[in-house]
Amino acid sequence: MRPDQGDSDSAGPRAAPSATAVREGACGYWDRRGLPTEPAQVAVAPGGPLLLLAVLAAAAGAGADTGVGTGTVGGAGERGTGSVLLPHPCPPWYAEQARLLGRAVHTVPVPVECGGIPDPFALLEAVRRTRAAGEVPQALVLSVADDVTGTAPPPELLHEVCEAAVAEGLLIVSDETWRDTSHDPHDTVVVSPAEMLTEAGRADHVVVLAGLEAAFESTFGTGAGTGAGTGAGAGTGAATRRPGPPPAIARVPATGRGRLLGERVHEVLAALRADLPGPAAEAAAEALREPTELLSRRADAARLHGGLARALHQAVTGAGALCRPPHLGRHLYADLDPFRPRLARRGITDAAGLEAELVRRLGPYALGGHRFGDDPHELRVRLTTALPAAALPAADRAADRPAGTGGSGATARPEPGELPGVAETLAQVQSVLVDLTDGSPQ
Question: Lowest-pLDDT range, 15-19, 106-110, 159-163?
Answer without folding.
Answer: 15-19
